[in-house]
Amino acid sequence: MQFVVPTRTIAAVAVLATVLGCGSTSVRSVDMRPPERATNAVPEALLLDVGVAIFDANIPEDYDEQIEGNIAPEVRRAEGNYIAYFLKNVLQDTGQWGAVRVVPRHTNAVDVIVSGKIIASDGERLQLEVTATDATDTVWFTKRYEGLSSRYAYDVSVPREFDPFQTVYREIADDLLAHRKNLDETAIGRVRTVAEMKFAREFAPDAFANYVEQDKRGQSKVVRLPATNDPMLARVRRVREREYLFIDTLDEYFAEFHRKMFTPYQEWRLATYDEAMAYRELKAQSRARMLGGALAIAGGIGALTSDDNSGMTQGAGYVAIVGGALAVQSAVKKRAEAQIHADVLQELGVSAEAEIAPHTIDLENRTVSLSGTVDAQYDAMKRVLRQVYYEELGLALPPEPALPAAIETEPDAGSDA
Amino acid sequence: MPAIRPFALVVALLAGTAMTACQSQSQSSGGQPQPPSSPSSPSMPSPSSVPSVPGTPGTPGTPGMPAPPAPPSTDGGIEDATDVFEDARNRRESGESGDASGDAGDRDETAEAGAEGGGLPGDESAGDDDQTADAGGPTCAEDDPDCDETTTGTTGSGTPAGGDEQVAAGGGTPCDEADPTCTSGADGAFERALEDFDGAILAERGTIISSANETAAGDPRADEGRPSARGGIPAVPGSGNGSAPDASGLPLPKAPETPPPPPPSTAQMDIPKDIPDARDDDVVARQLREAAMQETDPVLREKLWEEYRRYKSGS
């Protein structure tokens, strides 16, 4: 059975494929709408403290992948801090939450943790993957957000309080709020209680080890509660106040970091806006023309080798082949142009890294330094709390839990016994 | 004359004994940690003073405060001396000119209290308010800077001041957790740990404030890139929604909400009249404008303005 393909269809497809290489236009606008804000004061019982973790920079280890993705590692690392801080401010301004702070490390002092990963970031596009989890280990959502900026978002008339990717932050804030609104006061209270008990367990495990358990689904729940005037709980709460203080101090670090790195980072985004957009357009055009050209050539060959020897078919075949060849040639040129823009992006990244990296290093150094000091203080507090606990019970202080035994190495075969 | 010598010896002996007795009494009031003098049921801690066992919503501790335990004794009282209590005892001993026999006697009483009931000797003092009020002076030497002699202790919430009676080991009668001056035993160590933490944080915040002020003074645009400035450093510890500020409060420095703007220099005000508004300036024009405004040399300033005009006319 002979499979017959209509030649006119082939010719039409070939012409259409050639046309596919044409570019397209898109319209972008600057969206500065704020997220949903509280019109009245939210009752204290409904407030949840939010910790925004530093976003994962998602830097590939392979250098070629960094080049392919136009990733400037130091800029990306700074963005992890910048995005977290900016999102913190956006959430704080809504008035829908309790204390919202950037938390460089995991802490049980907050009720909800917002973490994320940078998928792509340059002056034109921002792609994030965001996860929100509460103290009961319930994942509120994991979602990808993408925003495309407009050139006018970098105009000097736009207030600096608005980010070119304001849409992304607004959507994250609105999604968080939408989930919180699905929780009633009891559920919110449960989250806050679990957070407090987890914190208490962390600092006084001997006293509060059995107050929080994890069920089969991996979610935490409170199984028992201490008395409201439990002295150990009172002490743990005082320690928790210090944790808040520590987090607030770190927040000042991030504020200062933001002040220092904003200008070079904004200039980098503005400079990469045109280059990144041109790079992506050229790559898309190159792919489309390559695909269209290949289809046109295939269609033309098919038309020429078909049984239909009419002039129209033969002519369409020749046109398709020539058009396809020209499309492929254009695709190669577009790819070369795209590479030029990629090189420019890389240079811009290197230049921005030189300005931004010192601020990032300074932030990280100060954070690590203060965290180390605080951790040492916390270790001392934990030891004292343990002593106080057993003292209150009138029991002897048991020895500290032993460290895992070192792995014993087998003696060498040639060694003497 | 020879008859006077034996008499002098007797007088000297009596004087020495009296001095010794006085010293032993002062030791018992302000030296070694002592068990409470109250003989009421040393083996049965009063119910109100039983510290709340986690999980049992009942009998709370002495208004939130358990009594510190007795010091180690040779008769099998609380034998495990923690580092905290050793340190506390060493500090007190360094402030004493003490009588070992008096100390031993005190320890024996403590041992009895500890051995008989297993309850914390200080619990009795919590249960006997009146006795506590009269009993036991501070268990630390008066010249000890950590020694607190100002708390009332009528409900066991503070270290009673003065008195010659023996008090619980570990640094006096239980004092209120909320009392910032409570420095007894492990609670004292806990307070000191909190103070150390506060000191470290306050020092760091001072650095932040001075750094912020320097940045604001050096760069007029330093604060422009800070969206939605929350402002300054909060004066209360932490900002958790479910917890009240620490009763003791933290002497945090009251930072200004935003760094004060630097005083405008004279050069900034000398903008030529033909220079238009900066609203339409792009990045290069803005930089030229700012450089011209901040330039103090009039010749260079005029050249910068000229460059600005040329750039604006060209763009």
Short description:
By secondary structure, chain A is α/β, with parallel strands linked by helices. In chain A, 57% of the residues lie in helices and 11% in strands. Chain B has three domains: 4-48 and 61-178, no CATH class; 184-221 and 233-261, no CATH class; 266-314, no CATH class.
Task: Report on the architecture of this protein.
The complex is a heterodimer of chains A (417) and B (315). Chain A is α/β, with parallel strands linked by helices. Chain A is 57% helix and 11% strand. A five-stranded mixed β-sheet of chain A has the order 2-1-3-4-5, with helices on one face. In chain A, a hairpin with a 4-residue loop joins strand 4 and strand 5. In chain A, helix 1 crosses helix 7. The longest helix of chain A is centred in the last third of the chain and has 83 residues. Chain A is elongated. The C terminus of chain A is likely disordered. With 315 residues, chain B is mainly alpha-helical. Chain B folds into three domains: 163 residues, no CATH class; 67 residues, no CATH class; 49 residues, no CATH class. Chain B is elongated. At the A-B interface, helix 3, helix 7 and helix 8 of A face helix 6 of B.
